[in-house]
Amino acid sequence: MYLDAFYYCPHHPDAKIKAYRIECDCRKPKPGMLLKASQDLNIDLTQSFMIGDRLSDIMAGQKAGCKAIHVLTGVGREQQSKHKLDASFTSMDLYEAVEKVVLNSMKR
Ligand SMILES: [Zn+2]
Prior knowledge:
The chain is an alpha/beta fold.
């Protein structure tokens, strides 16, 4: 098992370090990191899933054209009570989310 790449956003409009204090395209809920990964790794985002516990994860995934899976671990339950989350699926945890991805892929 391996990871092809990982991406992170070092930017924030209020960052202490001036070089990172910008409005970027990669900070979720913007989809920049997903779009970059799609270009770098030739990923079809319409056939992809974004899994996350925050509203910003779900929004980034949807803006990128992915199906979004909201997991209730981490801050997932808290986010669920605060926001209207319009994910394709909700899962108890990452394991259940992966099961949904696998089942969804077998339907094609
Ligand atoms: Zn950024």
